[in-house]
Amino acid sequence: MTRFYRGIFIVWVALRYGLDELVLTSFQKPWLRIVARVVSIGRNLDAPRGQRLREALERLGPIFVKFGQVLSTRRDLLPPDIADELAWLQDRVPPFPSAVAIATIERAFRRPVGDVFVQFDETPVASASIAQVHFATVRDARGTLREVAVKVLRPGMRRVMEKDLALMAMMAGWVKSLSADGKRLKPREVIAEFDKYLHDELDLVREAANAAQLRRNMEKLELVLIPEMLWDFCHPEVIVMERMNGVPIAQLDRLRAAGVDIPKLARDGVTIFFTQVFRDGFFHADMHPGNIMVSLAPQTFGRYISLDFGIVGTLTESDKEYLAQNFVAFFRRDYKRVAELHLESGWVPVGTRIDELEAAIRTVCEPYFDRPLKEISLGMVLMRLFQTSRRFHVEIQPQLVLLQKTLLNIEGLGRQLDPELDLWATAQPFLEKWMIDQIGPKRLFAQLRAEAPRYAKLLPQLPRLLHEYLENKPADHRQELLLLLAAQKRTNRLLQIVIAAGIGFVLGLIVMQFVVRVAVF
User: Fold this and answer.
1) Residue 217 has what pLDDT?
2) pLDDT at position 206, please?
């Protein structure tokens, strides 16, 4: 019965904000068009459709707000005006009562909040769709007083989430069966993707683990600060982390007045993003301005401060390699290679004509390369590419959707900081260096070093394993095996000669390079 009433309320909100005209008007059946006209009588629908959708999601509550945030990343499925409006759904949820937050903390740690914290500020400093944050002071394991931020999950989120997701899935089925665009928009797949992200965000320990991983990865880069997690005070509903002090990145006037080098800040943001993506394959996928501050402390002046790690993206080695090659090929305007990479990676169906895909990609990209690079909008290029991808049935990879959304965030942030920022020119040297590192001797030696323990364990066992194999093998096959071993020995000798020649060649190059440098200087 509760689900029924919730469904009635959702339908009422949808009609109140005119969301029916976004859906019903695309239906083919005449009676549904009549319904669309009837329900639109007497309503004021002067506001743009994207604005009405955003306001309706806010009225429906935190789960729908989060759904709007995730849906805004699927720009391959949405008209630009709706995607742009949904992108504003960040940190606009009213806070829940402090008494409820305290009750959640006491239930998680099974003791009064006064025993957990030396001091706890009941007024929240931030509130989002999933959780809110309070400042506090805690005594750590060494007895040191530390200022911390306490993130508390909204109460009853899992129960509300399951009900709302069930209703969303049901409505997605209606849209898919009744709407002309239903199959192309893949509403069920979008809801399933949202379900995954939301379940991940509801476990705050998972977020703490994401933060710890990013902190280790970024420690030596010295461009970004990530709060330390206090593991003795972490629970699925409550996490406690180092309190970070900085200026929100949107407050550019304060940053300029403090002497922060804004263009450098923009370039550093690009470096951080590409380092996380291509070096680590583990990146912060929710980098909107509300999650970014800048440190003004003397020892870390001008560094980014990253917050909120509920959504992270991961890439496999294969993903990273194909993405890097795609970017480099774009920079070099090698559209045929871009098309080949799409086929090799399985992103387009087997049998796709390379020349047709190459021509389509050239049509999208070439007009932008005819302009100065600083005027190129990577976001616009991606939008055009997504439109092209539908024609060639390119499969949208979930991890690449997160990457695309984050890249758009980075470009938007970079242009806000420095309108002259050349995102592609900033990224190109990084990617070309990464490609060289992937195929150069450093990479080879690193792989050999990583595999050395396995080889060291396996090599002493080879004679025994070979002896046991020969003993257990039928007699008529032994002669064949002995011939194979003899051939293997000859191959090994040849391989040793080749390796020795290769080492000699490399040493010769090093000596020659040294001689040239001495001669020059």
Assistant:
1) 95
2) 93
Asked whether residue 305 falls in the same domain as residue 229, the answer is: no
Query: Total domain count for the chain?
Result: 4
- Percentages helix, strand, coil for the chain, rounded to the nearest 5? 65, 10, 25
Buried b (16+ CB within 10 A) or exposed e, 201-216: bbbbebbbbbbbebbe
Are both 287 and 392 inside the same structural domain? yes
Chain mean pLDDT for the chain: 75
β-strand partners of 362: none
Phi, psi at 41, each rounded to 5°: -70, 135
Beta-carbon-side half-sphere exposure of residue 75 (alpha carbons within 13 Å) = 26
**125 contacts 94 by C-beta, under 8 angstroms:** no
Q: What is the pTM of this model?
A: 0.70
Please determine, for residue 443, whether its predicted confidence score (pLDDT) is greater than 80: no
User: In the annotation, is 286 catalytic?
Assistant: yes
Give the active site residue among 76, 286, 418, 422: 286
Residue 270 CA: distances (Å) to CA of 87, 161, 185, 409: 20, 35, 31, 11
CB 121 within 8 A of CB 89: no
The answer, yes or no, to whether residue 290 has pLDDT greater than 90, is no
| Domain of residue 35, residue span | 2-93
